[in-house]
Amino acid sequence: MVASLIKLLFPARCACCGAVAGGSDVCVRCKEKITYINPPVCELCGSELKRCGCKNRKYAFDRAVSAMVYEGAVRNGIRRFKFEGKVAAGRFFADEMLRVISREYGDVKFGLLLAVPMSKLSLKRRGYNHCDILCGHISKKTGIEFDRRALTKLRESRQQHTLSWRERMTNLSGVFRADSKKVAGKTVLLADDIMTTGATLSECARAIKNAGAKEVFCVSAAMTELNRIN
Ligand SMILES: [Zn+2]
Ligand SMILES: [Zn+2]
After folding, report:
1. For residue 26, which ligand has an atom nearest its CA?
2. How far apart are CA 150 and CA 47, in angstroms?
3. Domains in the chain, please, with CATH?
4. Which residues make beta-bridge pairs with 188?
């Protein structure tokens, strides 16, 4: 009774556009505009094999997987979640990440879950790290311990949208630090909302491995098709 009253008063909103979604996470119109990344996927970057663009790249992580392509409704939803305070949408994106984690990493025993961190300044400006929210959901459903302090961003880096892969790597060099007391010897699951070139995830993975982690596997809700960026 109370639950149905709450539903009536606060109907579930679409995680992508905010319209009333009639009992599902995403409305029918947005659902049609989601491109899922379907297996078989590249064993390194997680793109669908026919779209893989990672051949000339060296990553510090062992593997990355993503649930959806970053375009259309998904892009809209992630922007709202990240920049407009629509934190409730995080559950939908976390559920998509959980789906791909169990499909692709079913055999991996993770000892620790980490989120791609924000600098103190950005965190202060935005008020929340959206990746922490994703990790909160993932940890709750998988039981993997989430530590929001074990990986930190030491300083602000330049905005990356206009940078090439090489420029991104230079831009991020030495920006992240992991706490060896927390990560040494562990198999780490590292989460981000979007994988664009993989440079951020790779630099985070490098810091985590420098602190003694055994392996680093990445997961993101959405990815840009890698072969679109040089
Ligand atoms: Zn919608
Ligand atoms: Zn690839």
Report:
1. 1
2. 28
3. 1-32 (no CATH), 34-228 (3.40.50.2020)
4. 112, 216
Name the closest ligand to CA 198: 2
What's at 112, amino acid-wise?
A: L
Please write the tens of the pLDDT for every residue from 43-64: 999 999 988 888 878 999 999 9
Ligand nearest to the CA of 46: 2
CA dihedral 79, 33, 102, 81 (to 10 degrees): 20
**Distance (Å, whole) CA 73 – CA 62:** 29
Task: Pick out the chain residues at pLDDT < 70.
Answer: 1-11, 226-230
Give residue 171 CA to ligand 1 midpoint distance, Å.
35
How many whole angstroms from 210 Cα to the centroid of ligand 2?
23
Tokens of 43: 């064993």
